Amino acid sequence: MGCSSSRRMELDANPTREHGPATASGIIYSSMPTMHANEQLKDVVSSGRGGSMLAKPCPEPIVGGGLNGKSLPFHQFEGPAQSKFFAPYWSMETVNEALEKGDVFKVLFRVNAHNRLEAYCKIEGVPTDVLISGIAAQNRAVEGDVVVIKVDPLSFWTKMKASKGVDLHLKANRKTSGSRQGKSKLNTDCKYADFGNSLVPQKGFYCEYSSCAGEDVHDELNGPVGCNYANGYHQSSSDSSHVAPSKGQGEVLNAVGRMCSMISSYPSKRPTCRVVAIIEKSPRRDAIVGFLNVKQWFYYREGCKKDAKKNKSLLSISNCEYIEIMPTDPRFPKLMVLVSCLPDCIKKRLDDEDETVEMELVAAQIDNWSDESPFPEAHVSYIFGQGSEMESQINAILHENAIRCSEFFPESLSCLPSNTWEVPKEEFQNRRDLRNLCIYTIDPYSATDLDDALSVQRLPDGLVRVGVHISDVSYFVLPDTTLDIEAQLRSTSVYMLQRKIPMLPPLLSEDIGSLKPGVDRLAFSIFWNLNSSGNVVDRWVGRTVIRSCCQLSYEHAQDIVDGMIDAETCNNFRDDLPQLHGHFEWADVIGSMKCLHEISKTLREKRFDDGALQLESSNFVFLFDEYGIPYDNTLRGRKDSNFLVEEFMILANRTAAEIISRAFPDSALLRRHPEPNIQKLREFEAFCCKHGLELDTSSGNFHRSLEHIKEKLKDDSVLFNILINYATRPMQLATYFCSGDLKDNMNDWGHYALAVPLYTHFTSPLRRYPDIVVHRTLAAAIEAEQLYMMNRRMSHKVRPGEEVTRCFTGICFLKEAAVSSEGREALSAAALKHRIPCTELLTDIAAYSNERKLASRHVKEASRHVKDACDNLYMWVSVKRKEVLLSDARVLGLGPRFMTIYIHKLAIERRIYYDEVDGLTSEWLEATSTLVLNTCASKWSVRRAGPGYYRALDEVAWVINPCDHNLEPDMESTQGCGAAQHSDPILKSEIDPFVFPLTVRLLSTIPVALHATGGDDGPLNIGARLFMSSYFT
Prior knowledge:
Its main location: cytoplasm. Residues 1-24 are annotated as: Disordered. Its cofactor is Mg(2+); Mn(2+). Pfam families: OB_Dis3 (PF17849), RNB (PF00773). It comes from Salix purpurea. By secondary structure, this protein is α+β, with helices and mostly antiparallel strands. It has 24 helices and 38 strands. Strands 1, 29, 30, 31, 34, 35, 37 and 38 form an 8-stranded mixed beta sheet that branches. A hairpin with an 8-residue loop joins strand 14 and strand 15 (377-386). The radius of gyration is 31 Å and the shape is globular. The two termini are 27 Å apart.
């Protein structure tokens, strides 16, 4: 390792090293665009160990634990024991005063996953992210904290990386001096520590509608119960913010304006800041997953035993020693746990000197982080099992994202009727009966929570009437009930391919609330009368009773669209079609589907003409064996049937947003999507221009421009997919918000990707809690409309023709009706009946739903969160089952120390480092941005003393003998899963190795060998090496 563990910890804990320059900060690096935070390649917080992972069927919490305020045992560090590592936090009084003056800003703290010493925050109105560099400036904040920052003076601002906007990937690894044109020797003292690329497939940016999504909970949501409800003009007793400056807005705006002016004047400078207070602690503090650094602890204990023999007065080891937890998420710091506070089962194994404890995947909770401690104090709260087991990893993913996977509360289940429930007779009187209309669902073939259905009718005047019918979940989930509270806590369903964690009990989500065919179901329906141009001529919104005639899969719908299914084949030759219910025939369904397809194409074309943007990418499809273990994956794009459903769901969401925002301007739950990061967008434009690809990102032209590039690259689909991947990175997240919260900034309500001024979520109430809130608000608008007209009739104020006017839900909103005394009274009464949340409470619901939606994505990416993390896990498991997975890769970035590659099969990026490799030389030709790699004699004999060592050639390249070249890309390992095992027979392969010398240029295609790393000895990862052939291996 080069230094003792204790020495290494002294270096880690020394805050004076945090601002040290990167060892190779000046070498030119030609590349694809860098749309993520730039990395500094210095491993300041090295762990010296790997982790592990395995599992129990369900994780059990550890009762008790914690450090109870005890200070960290610094006698295990070399150096002074009680020096201050951090500045003290400001008082809340000082913070509030500074916020009002605009001297500080309240922001969200985000950490660079490639370098934990770099954190960033976004100040509203400032175009550039602000850097928080080093542990001292970060002042004990962790990923996800809401902090207060003080911006540094201009003289402390750093140089903006990639500020020229042409070479958009990292310009790391450049020597500070001695660089020259042509061949360039490498700096042999520079570090090549890689902070680890995540397994995250680089997903495309999707529009708001999708057929599946997932997510879940914290233990509590502030204020879901006991708050006042009223109409759009009411007050609330809840107070949702600790720091909410109501005065001094002018000073804040002036401060933001001054920052923007300075950034404009010094475009090559990045603003820096420091944390002065933590306002809201991240929930992730309570669920940090990692491994115990057992080997280091055993090494330390042996030293203590030797010292104890010499000095009998030393304290007992068990009373003072600690053990490290190394988080699997590189954004979090190492944690210190007193051994005496470990669970008994772990302490017993440590007493038995069982080193396999380090294979256990555990969760820890931060208890304290004093200004005298370089690392936070924590206690172990969960033990998941061995890290190499898939079940352990899944349980850890759910735990760290606070996904509630327990059974539903009995009190929640008691809110539901029995499974023999039928539509009550009175509902037929209060709703429009649509059971004789040809209505059907289109979902994934395995879906059970069917919450949307479609219909279409041709009208005599040449118009078509399209209907979207959404399950009326709000009929069953009443406000303030236990079921409502639990649904709000869960917030969203979580989908993980082989498992689903529902937001609502299965009795509701899969039975009485699901739009199953052949049974009567309650629905919210929206009808539009559309002309041939796709314009809405009229619309109707209301509660209905429907009976779906069949449950179609996307595959069935696609076959109908493609003409592979017609009435004759349905009746005579197709036995794989779903059952048809009622008096309808397949000719009715097929005709309806083809009509909807034509309308959806018109609506889609119209959206893109209006400036909508969709960055479409392929989805992962994993293949599982009979034991539910993934063994391979493919990439699959979406088809016309997906777009068909999406188009009408978007239209329904737009309509719902328009109605509720007009009827209740202070209490509408909407969804906004900000414009992309301008700087990153300009960098992407510059890259495309450099490579002869004309890109126009101006309003309305972005999508059309990408389509032209797609046509130009029709013979290079991989490169186009890479471009789409990078085009998504300037995009910001769409979020829920309360209309009353932004009533003075209506220009910020819009949805950039959809190019619409108003949007919400209405179409998935079985799996998203915000949709239930929107349903209640829509029901209140409909009822207010009815009350208003009833009051008008009773007071004899109805004018001729007014009887059929839909004043609140129709295309034309009658504002004079809404502001009249009758209108205000009707809206207030309806809001009170349906318990429409006040502005303050709705703001809390929006914020919580945003956090839960983000968490649910993480469970299926190890970010955005549950969904993607599970995808990464399945990918890792499938690669681990193969000794080697061979694939072509595209070179996205190139420099003297490493190259960045894109592996299309897995949709991931990886780095291959080739400096300081024994038996390998690298020549970087700066003038032509070309790299030449070649084999050479061993360097071990000429290696001089230095901070690192030459790595073995097989860490960088898998070199085979040409006589053995009959590899197969997906060969199964019967001898084990280790990446270093290459003794198995080599089967035939479609991927051919390259030979030395190897010349590489930007966008070159090269063969690589992929292998799974981590599991029982560290975080999950997939490594990449060059796939080479040589007779001299």
